[in-house]
Amino acid sequence: MIDKIKNHINELKTISFQSLEELEEFRIKFLGKKGLLTIFFSEFREIPQEQKKEYGKTLNEFKLAVKEKYDKSKISLSKNDKKNIFQDDLSKPGQPINVGAHHPLSIVRDKVIDIFKMIGFELSHGPDIEDDWHNFSALNFPEDHPAREMQDTFFIETNPDIVLRTHTSTVQIRHMQSNEPPIRILSPGRVFRNEAVSARSHCVFHQIEGLYINKNVSFADLKQTLAYFTKSMFGTAKIRLRPSYFPFTEPSAEVDVYWGLNSETDYRITKGTGWLEIMGCGMVDPKVISNCGIDADEFTGFAFGIGVERLAMLLYQIEDIRMFYENDVRFLSQFKFSDR
Ligand code: DAH
C-alpha cells in the first residue's frame, strides 16, 4: 500500500495541464470527496500497527504534493488565460481616439504671439465694450471727423458714449494710461463692426495690436521689427511699406509682404502683383502719447494692427470668412495636425 502511494507521488511529477478543465479533473480525482486521498486516509484503519507510522508519513507527503501541484498549476494556468485575452488578435484595428483640434484663428493668433514674445512683447488685454474716449477720442479721432466713418460702429442705443470696440487700438490707450515706458505689448482680441456679413467681411472678427514706446524709437525700428515678424511668419523679410492714413499714427503705412507668383492662386490672391497686404502700422502720434499722460517729447513709439482672420485666410487658403464661426467639425478637424 505504501508503495502504491509512493508511485502516485512520482506520477505527480510527470503530470501537466493544458487547461483549467484538465486541472479540475485532477482535483476531483485526487482531492474530491471520493478521491484518492479520501480513500487512502480511510484505509489507515486497516494498516497493521507497525506500518502505521510510515504509512501516515507517506500519505501526508502525498497530500502536500497534490495540494502544491494543484495550487501552482492553477496560478500559472490563469495567468496564461489572461495573456490569451491580450494576444487575441494583434492585427485587429485599435479603438479610435478622438483628438481635438485648435481653431485656425487660435493657431494663427498663438503663432503671432510666440513670434513677438521672443523679442520681449507682453500680452495686455482690454474690454470688448468701450467708451468713446478709448475707442476714438484718445486715439486722435476728433468728434465729427470723417475718420470715424472708416469704422462702422455699433453704439449702445441708450448711451452713445458706449460702443463695441471697433479695433484693439483701445488697449494701447488703456495700457499707456496705467504703465510707464518702456512699453512693449501685444493685444489680441475680438472687435466689432456694423457691416453686412459676406464671404469677405464679418461683423465680429479678431485683431492683434502691437505697441512699442521708449526713448528714441524710430521708423527704422518699426521696419526692422516688421521684417523680423514676416521672416518668422512667412519665411521672408521682403516687405514694403505703402503710405497710408490712421488718425493715431503719423506717418502711417500699410505693410505688404512678398508672397510670390508661383501658382494660379498666388496670381489671384495678390491680384497679379505678388504682394499681399497684411497689416497697418505707423509711428504713434505724439498727441496720442500725451493723451495718456506720457511725455511725448521724451518718448516715441510705433504701433501696428494685424487682422487675424485675414492672416488665417491667406495662410490656409480659406475662401469664406464665415467658415471660422460655423463650428463645422469637417472644417475644424482639418487643423488637427497643424503645428503651432
Ligand atoms: N486700428 C486699425 C484698424 O482697425 C489697425 C491699425 C492700423 C492699428 C495702424 C495700428 C496701427 O496700431 O498703427 O483698422
Task: Please sum up the structure shown.
By secondary structure, the chain is α+β, with helices and mostly antiparallel strands.
Topology:
Elements: H1 2-14, H2 20-31, H3 36-42, H4 49-86, H5 104-117, E1 122-123, E2 129-131, H6 132-135, E3 155-156, E4 159-164, H7 170-178, E5 183-192, E6 204-214, H8 219-234, E7 239-246, E8 249-258, H9 264-269, E9 275-284, H10 286-291, E10 300-307, H11 308-316, H12 329-332
Parallel strand pairs: 1-5
Antiparallel strand pairs: 2-4, 3-4, 5-6, 6-10, 7-8, 8-9, 9-10
Helix pairs in contact: 1-4, 2-4, 5-11
Descriptive report:
This protein is 41% helix and 21% strand. The chain is of the alpha+beta class and 340 residues long. The chain folds into two domains: 2-88; 104-332, 2-Layer Sandwich (BirA Bifunctional Protein, domain 2). The strands form two sheets. It has a seven-stranded mixed sheet, sandwiched between helices. The longest helix is centred in the N-terminal third of the chain and has 38 residues, at 49-86. The relative contact order is 0.11.
Number of helices: 12
Question: What is the averaged pLDDT score?
Answer: 91
Main beta sheet: 7 strands, mixed
Distance between the termini: 83 Å
CATH architecture of the largest domain: 2-Layer Sandwich
Fraction of residues in helices? 40-55%
Structural class: alpha+beta
User: CATH topology of the largest domain, which one?
Assistant: BirA Bifunctional Protein, domain 2
Number of strands: 10
CATH H level, superfamily name of the largest domain: Bira Bifunctional Protein, Domain 2
